[in-house]
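Design request, tokens follow.
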């Protein structure tokens, strides 16, 4: 079960950390999907967390 222990060593990002990172990332081309499920602002070509204006 060594593999399981190694997997536990991977740091999982909290929602706020994800949003901080994702907020500056380009959106998936041709979609409004963002890695943390936040809304993609096509006008900016950037992901924005819920509640933030584009």
């Amino acid at each position: 079960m060594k593999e399981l222990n190694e997997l536990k060593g991977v740091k999982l990002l909290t929602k706020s950390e994800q949003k901080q990172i994702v907020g500056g990332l380009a959106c998936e081309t041709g979609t409004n999907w963002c890695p943390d499920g936040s809304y993609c602002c096509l006008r900016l070509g950037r992901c924005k967390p819920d509640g933030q204006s584009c």
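Comment from the thread starter after seeing the answer: thanks! The CA atoms of residues 2 and 8 lie 10 Å apart.
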